[in-house]
């Protein structure tokens, strides 16, 4: 609008914000643009997005970014405070804490990605099937969901890991098994609001199968709420995984998992505080990132939540 | 008799949920790669006594019969014997549970005392800086690993500043000096008239309960804000203002009364999650409650104790859900 | 006291160029756009369709326009006192005690978790130093004054336990108990059954004239207002398009008013198709 605005970018903007999109793709991009404009105005949400992106970049480039090998011991330099050589100090084996945190980002990202790829998907399938078919299918699935919802998640995850044996894979399985019910509830609620809509009836009249309607019409409409919920839950997943690691049930040594690092730093906390403090900061910042991002997304994608 | 019918539905739901919980703990007990026969007999048992023990434990029965046996045992209060303490698990759990109850209760009271006013304040200042600040603080509170915060708080307030005593429920010096009547040290000390021990116990309680409660502040504040915003839009709020009431009375006298019932549900739910969340806090503060019991049992693969503890926490969790629902009916004139 | 007030020459309410605006993404949207009128101890009807700004006019007199709405006026004075300049503390003294308001639906305007008796007694106690017993006695009297037969029993009821008509009478009792000088009735009968509408109106009318109050009666029902009020303002899109005595309504000039009058079905004529109200964009600027 101002004189020095690049005409080409102004053209793009106009194309994106038009009230009369010419194609489905344009309409979709236009809505995404409108969402982005609203999201961008929330500075905290943008900060959250940057933190999450930073986690991804750090995880991807860990070997390049880390100044030392995460397992490289240097027993002459045990428990050194932060210095020029070791920005965040060293741990009980003289390993560089910063390098271990950078490599630990990979584990955190892996846990987050695995849980985000499984629990919401399971919830989505259960919720949409229950909502779409209704009747006894709905009753059975939702009773089942309600029962699972009333379970204490953390304790059950602990019991699962205890049964399956400690380890990062089992921690992921335990977290995923205990966190699907809320997604099923959300997906069902969304399904119920569209189940009777005309476009679903139209699809059915055209002979679309139930599977096709659920996959092609209903599931896409549940995605927005599920993304918001998943993003917000990821902070909790990170904290639970770290908690399991802290109790010695998650990642096993010498893996540089942040929770386990806090556990090993615990015995030195009164003298060499940085050994336990630094991984805690990392957990805090990353999970705050997901919380801020999820909070911002909720405002954009799910305005009725406020 | 709609009340009776709803009560029955509730009862059936609770029973089904408890049964589901039992099924889960039962199945977890089956997938454990520990042979219960060997752990009962030791690994030098003869084949003969092995088979005998196997029959005695019911492991030769079909799975569903084993489950029924398990349910029957639990209903009779038999949660098995702890390998670690070689005492019945139920006895152990009942001994350590009051400590957890004490911690979680103080924590939830702190959480509600801070969370409700914060939520109300955020709602009445919607969109202005107090609202944003409380929202940000809430998100921060939900992002801090609680066990780490506990460690850091111990480092700062105990080791460096010496404002609070260290881990444990009372100073070592006072330990075992009051009879465990209720198992809640503060109450027992008061009952015995030992004010000195009482104050010591209170000082020990401050830090862990504040750290644990912090987690519920954010949740309670967030829910309070949402409920409050809903109410402040209502027409009866305008009525209260038209009457000439001060804003304080409009908010705290009229609006808050309307959200009291859902708020109690929220507080009951966060109480339940604090009982559960005490696992990590107790570990950090060496607080001899159910959480510490479960984690210690975990580390020594004492599955009877782990599953028994899980079952008790789960049952209390479900009971609190039930309680909040009952309170709802008692307190809301519209539901009566 | 009442006579002395009547003799006073200052109008009860002076409103000049009242504007209520709400910020939107595209700028300020004005809900009320320059409304002016004065009110003595009389019944003034404000008529308009929904969105015409009639309710906002009522609420801005009490300074109860919800934020972020903004109220401005060249003059907004009650008994000669500038309401826009009054402190919020002074405003609280005026609300209830001097100016009260009855709203549309008692289902929503009564606090659902307080007994109606407590709500009425509270309205009394805000503005007096009376004790609980005295407040209860006055509340029971007031319930009787709005023709509730068994005040003692109704006193302990919750709003969801009373009918709509009784709810609105309770609302009137609550608003009149501090003996205000001006009552704003914002669609007080629209949510009620036709059978109880007249009953509630009669109570309002009686109490109003007994106490010598002024009343602003906001409604979308032209017939009702014409029969109930002394004077009428017709609002359209945030402006007053017509102002006349109720008895002169048939002589109204503005095309919008004429349109409204023409669209009223008459009992003594054969019902044909009712004419559709036409709206001229020029009225927005008049």
TrEMBL record, chain A:
It is a multi-pass membrane protein. Its main location: membrane. Gene3D superfamilies: MetI-like (1.10.3720.10). GO terms for cellular component: plasma membrane. Keywords: Cell membrane, Membrane, Peptide transport, Protein transport, Transmembrane, Transmembrane helix, Transport. It comes from the Bacteria. Pfam families: BPD_transp_1, OppC_N. Residues 105-294 form the ABC transmembrane type-1 domain. It is found in: Cell membrane. The chain crosses the membrane at residues 44-66, 107-133, 154-177, 209-228, 235-253, 273-294. InterPro entries: ABC_transport_permease (IPR053385), BP-dependent_transpt_permease (IPR050366), MetI-like (IPR000515), MetI-like_sf (IPR035906), OppC_N (IPR025966). Belongs to the binding-protein-dependent transport system permease family. OppBC subfamily. This is Peptide/nickel transport system permease protein.
Automatic annotation (TrEMBL), chain B:
The chain crosses the membrane at residues 103-124, 136-159, 197-221, 255-274, 305-328. The keyword Transmembrane helix applies. Its main location: membrane. The keyword Protein transport does not apply. One of its GO terms (molecular function) is dipeptide transmembrane transporter activity. Pfam families: BPD_transp_1, BPD_transp_1_N. Residues 97-328 form the ABC transmembrane type-1 domain. InterPro entries: BPD_transp_1_N, MetI-like, MetI-like_sf. It is found in: Cell membrane. It is a multi-pass membrane protein. GO terms for cellular component: plasma membrane. Keywords: Cell membrane, Membrane, Transmembrane, Transmembrane helix, Transport. SUPFAM superfamilies: MetI-like. CDD domains: TM_PBP2. Belongs to the binding-protein-dependent transport system permease family. This is Peptide/nickel transport system permease protein. It comes from Azospirillum oryzae.
Automatic annotation (TrEMBL), chain C:
Pfam families: ABC_tran (PF00005). Keywords: ATP-binding, Cell membrane, Membrane, Nucleotide-binding, Transport. It is found in: Cell inner membrane. Transmembrane segments: none annotated. It is a peripheral membrane protein. One of its GO terms (biological process) is transmembrane transport. This is Peptide/nickel transport system ATP-binding protein.
């Amino acid at each position: 609008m101002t004189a020095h605005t690049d005409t080409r970018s102004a053209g793009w903007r106009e194309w994106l914000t038009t009230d009369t999109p010419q194609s489905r793709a344009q309409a979709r991009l236009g809505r995404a643009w409108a969402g982005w404009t609203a999201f961008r105005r929330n500075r905290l949400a943008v900060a959250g997005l940057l933190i999450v992106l930073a986690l991804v970049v750090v995880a991807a480039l860990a070997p390049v970014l880390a100044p030392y090998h995460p397992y490289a011991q240097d027993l002459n330099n045990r428990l050194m405070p932060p210095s020029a050589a070791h920005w965040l100090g060293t741990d009980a084996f003289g390993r560089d804490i910063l390098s271990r945190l950078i490599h630990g980002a990979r584990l955190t990202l892996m846990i987050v990605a695995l849980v985000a790829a499984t629990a919401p998907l399971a919830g989505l399938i259960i919720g949409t099937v229950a909502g779409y078919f209704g009747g006894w299918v709905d009753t059975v699935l939702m009773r089942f969901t309600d029962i699972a919802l009333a379970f204490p998640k953390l304790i059950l995850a602990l019991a699962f890991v205890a049964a399956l044996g400690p380890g990062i894979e089992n921690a992921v399985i335990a977290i995923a098994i205990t966190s699907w019910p809320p997604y099923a509830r959300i997906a069902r609620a969304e399904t119920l609001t569209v189940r009777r809509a005309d476009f679903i009836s139209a699809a059915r009249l055209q002979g679309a199968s139930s599977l096709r309607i659920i996959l092609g019409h209903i599931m896409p409409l549940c995605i927005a709420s599920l993304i918001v919920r998943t993003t917000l839950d990821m902070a909790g997943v990170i904290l639970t995984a770290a908690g399991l690691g802290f109790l010695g049930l998650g990642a096993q040594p010498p893996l540089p998992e942040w929770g386990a690092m806090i556990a090993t730093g615990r015995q030195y906390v009164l003298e060499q505080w940085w050994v336990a403090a630094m991984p805690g900061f990392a957990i805090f910042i990353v999970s705050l990132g997901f919380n801020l991002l999820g909070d911002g997304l909720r405002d954009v994608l799910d305005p009725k939540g406020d | 008799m709609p009340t009776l019918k709803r009560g029955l539905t509730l009862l059936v739901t609770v029973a089904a949920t408890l049964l589901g919980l039992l099924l889960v703990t039962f199945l977890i007990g089956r997938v454990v790669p520990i042979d219960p026969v060997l752990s009962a007999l030791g690994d030098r048992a003869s084949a003969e006594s092995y088979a005998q023990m196997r029959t005695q434990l019911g492991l030769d029965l079909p799975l569903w019969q084993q489950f029924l046996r398990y349910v029957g045992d639990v209903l009779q209060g038999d949660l098995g014997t702890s390998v670690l303490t070689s005492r019945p698990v139920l006895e152990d759990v009942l001994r350590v549970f009051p400590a957890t109850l004490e911690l979680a209760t103080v924590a939830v009271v702190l959480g509600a005392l801070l969370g409700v006013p914060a939520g109300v304040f955020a709602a009445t200042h919607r969109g202005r800086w107090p609202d944003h600040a409380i929202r940000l603080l809430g998100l921060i509170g939900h992002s801090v690993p609680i066990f780490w915060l506990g460690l850091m708080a111990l480092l700062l307030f105990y080791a460096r500043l010496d404002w609070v005593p260290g881990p444990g429920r009372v100073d070592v010096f006072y330990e075992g000096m009051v009879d465990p009547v209720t198992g809640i040290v503060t109450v027992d000390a008061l009952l015995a008239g030992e004010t000195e021990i009482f104050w010591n116990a209170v000082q020990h309680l401050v830090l862990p309960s504040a750290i644990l409660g912090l987690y519920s502040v954010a949740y309670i504040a967030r829910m309070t804000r949402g409920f409050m915003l809903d109410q402040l839009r209502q027409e009866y709020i305008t009525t209260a203002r038209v009457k000439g009431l001060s804003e304080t009375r409009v908010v705290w006298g009229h609006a808050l009364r309307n959200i009291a019932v859902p708020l109690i549900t929220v507080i009951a739910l966060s109480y339940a999650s604090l009982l559960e969340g005490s696992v990590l806090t107790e570990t950090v503060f060496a607080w001899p409650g159910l959480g510490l019991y479960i984690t210690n049992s975990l580390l020594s693969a004492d599955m009877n104790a782990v599953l028994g503890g899980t079952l008790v926490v789960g049952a209390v969790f479900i009971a609190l859900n039930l309680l909040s629902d009952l309170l709802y009916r008692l307190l809301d004139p519209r539901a009566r | 006291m009442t006579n002395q007030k009547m003799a006073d020459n200052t109008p009860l309410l002076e409103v000049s160029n009242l504007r209520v605006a709400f910020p939107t993404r595209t700028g300020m949207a004005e809900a009320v756009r320059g409304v002016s009128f004065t009110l003595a101890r009389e019944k003034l009807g404000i008529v308009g369709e929904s969105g015409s700004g009639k309710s906002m006019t009522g609420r801005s007199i009490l300074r109860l326009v919800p934020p972020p709405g903004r109220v401005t006026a060249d003059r907004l004075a009650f008994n000669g006192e500038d309401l826009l300049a009054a402190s919020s503390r002074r405003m609280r003294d005026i609300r209830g005690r001097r100016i009260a308001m009855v709203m549309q639906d008692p289902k929503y305007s009564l606090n659902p978790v307080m007994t109606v008796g407590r709500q009425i007694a509270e309205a009394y106690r805000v503005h007096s130093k009376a004790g609980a017993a005295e407040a209860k006695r006055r509340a029971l009297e007031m319930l009787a004054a709005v023709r509730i037969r068994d005040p003692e029993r109704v006193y302990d009821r919750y709003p969801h336990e009373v009918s709509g008509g009784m709810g609105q009478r309770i609302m009137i009792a609550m608003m009149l108990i501090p003996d205000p000088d001006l009552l704003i009735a914002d669609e007080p009968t629209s949510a009620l059954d036709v059978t109880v509408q007249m009953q509630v109106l009669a109570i309002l009318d009686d109490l109003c004239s007994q106490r010598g109050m002024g009343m602003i009666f906001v409604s979308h029902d032209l017939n009702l207002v014409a029969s109930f009020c002394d004077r009428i303002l017709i609002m359209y899109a945030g402006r007053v398009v017509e102002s006349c005595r109720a008895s002169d309504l048939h002589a109204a000039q503005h095309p919008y008013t004429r349109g409204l009058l023409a669209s009223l079905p008459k009992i003594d004529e054969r019902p044909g198709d009712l004419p559709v109200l036409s709206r001229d964009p020029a009225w927005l600027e008049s």
